[in-house]
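Margin note: ligand = nickel (II) ion.
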Amino acid sequence: MNEQTVIRAKEYIQKLFEGNSDGHDAAHSLRVYRNAMLIADATPGCDRYAVAVAALLHDADDHKLFDSKDNANARAFLRAENIDAQTSERIIRIINSVSFSKNKDRPAQTIEEYIVRDADRLDAMGAVGIARTFAYGGKAGRGIDDSVQHFHEKLLLLRDMMHTRIAREMAEERHSFMLRFLEELEKDT
Ligand code: NI
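Resulting structure:
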């Protein structure tokens, strides 16, 4: 696995998510990838390539968008790249540990799993988290009040769920911004 694989993974998700713009799109995966690389840079000894590819593919089989079984989309890419079975399984395990709903409180097993988890959760926070919440809410027919509920049920809990030090720092900033936003929103409404 090398830099070329990472470049092709970016192209692969662009095609895969074509036509989606509800917050689970290629742009989300690219932001998660960017967050993951920032965290990986601050985490010596982690497997950077596994983190990079898993971050890019982490929503490739998201059940809200695809009805693929057993990570079929991610596996198709890894097969096309001739990535060996052991590395592929490691990447699939990282991908499967990201989902909020599938994992609940189950702890991650490896530092790579924690990195991609943190990276995905960071993208649900701050300015981008706010933008995604209302984009998704609009698509689901939810108004402003219902979307605000989502902050209290999920987004404001994420800060305390970060595992890596640098993600905790990034989360702190994004968390305060969301609180400020909710305050302003309350004033305006
Ligand atoms: Ni995601």
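The pocket of nickel (II) ion is lined by residues 28, 32, 58-59, 120 (CB under 6 Å).
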